[in-house]
Amino acid sequence: MGFHNFMGNTPILKSIQQQLSEGKNLSSFLFSGISGIGKWTLAHYISKALNCKKLSNDFCDSCTSCLKINKNIHLDVKTYSPDGTFIKINQMRELNKEVFFKPFEGKHRVFIIDQAHHLRIEAATSILKTLEEPPDTSSIILITDSSRDLLATIRSRCQTFHFSPLESHILQKILKQQSTFSPEDIPLVENLSEGSLGKALTLDLNQYRKARGELIIALDACIDNLSYHQARKVMDYLTSFKQKDRFNSNLNILQKLVRDIFILKIDPSGGMITNIDLHQKLNILSRKVTFQQIRAAAQSLDWLTKGLERNLNKNLALDQFLFTLSGLTRPSSTF
């Protein structure tokens, strides 16, 4: 075990290893990028490398220190994450105090702020001085999926590393080793994960295909049969889930299908589509819809997605999508 097991984002890994080997003070880091691409893993690796009892600038994963960090019981490694919706000021006040304590049982203290974009403004401002001048015995690592949602004053005080989605050959290799997906399904899973290993390993492919099948019926009803009743029935199914995450997941599937049809209007070969296992079916649908219809439908879905943040009426917005996709119009006064 050690840094050599880290997959992807090689330049970032090499930079961290070089700083460790040169004995530089690893003070304040910001790891940004989509979820599931190794930000948390690398922060975890750094905490072990700084405290490993057997190795220098790397970790063995077998000494008492490494094992304690793996179990989240090491006194010198602490993680802060949202308490409810936000990371609150009392949590950061605790960090401001503890960061100046000398190590209790290891060689170095590491404080990880997970989902740092959920810092309340007062919590974020409270750690500015600490981020700028942490003691030599402590390191702070902020992890975020959305660095733009962090205060500029936070970003400016950290050494920032932007993590890229995992490359195709790396993701496929890991999926073959660690997942139960069949070899035939791995290319689809890779497409759906968008380079996120975490997303790939937690994907329920059966549930995805079930929801996708229902949505294909709605698209077919609009594009081919022009059956509003049938399409609306499917959309009622889409909106029936009380869990926000479930609705967003279904909406994301719908967007991928519309995007694929849009791409196939331009390039029927389908080299860039996500749902590669439905290439033939989606190609048929793409030939039955005009470019203007599918472009307007895609714009309608984008408008719906952005509108969710301001409590847009989902049913009316989906109606707008259905009528647009069908090539029909509906009076704007109803929206």
Task: Describe the 3D structure.
The protein is of the alpha/beta class and 335 residues long. The protein has 3 domains: 160 residues, 3-Layer(aba) Sandwich (Rossmann fold); 34 residues, no CATH class; 130 residues, Zinc Finger, Delta Prime, domain 3 (Up-down Bundle), CATH 1.20.272. The protein has 16 helices and 5 strands. Strands 2-3-4-1-5 form a 5-stranded parallel β-sheet, sandwiched between helices. α11 runs antiparallel to α12 and α11 packs across α16. The C terminus is likely disordered.
Provide keyphrases for this structure.
16 helices, 7% strand, 5 strands, disordered C terminus, Rossmann fold, 3 domains, Zinc Finger, Delta Prime, domain 3, 335 residues, alpha/beta
Which sequence of SSEs, written as H and E, runs from N to C? HEHHEHEHHEHEHHHHHHHHH
Average residue-wise pLDDT: 90
The largest sheet is:
5 strands, parallel
Indicate the radius of gyration in whole angstroms.
Answer: 24 Å
Structure annotation, total helices:
16
Give the CATH level 1 class of the largest domain: Alpha Beta
Sheet-strand content, in percent, reads 5-15%
Shape: elongated
Count of domain modules:
3
Q: Any idea what the CATH superfamily of the largest domain is called?
A: P-loop containing nucleotide triphosphate hydrolases
First and last CA, distance: 57 Å
CATH architecture of the largest domain: 3-Layer(aba) Sandwich
- Structural class, please? alpha/beta
Q: How many E-type strands?
A: 5
Low-confidence segments, ≥5 residues, pLDDT <50?
331-335
Helix content: 40-55%
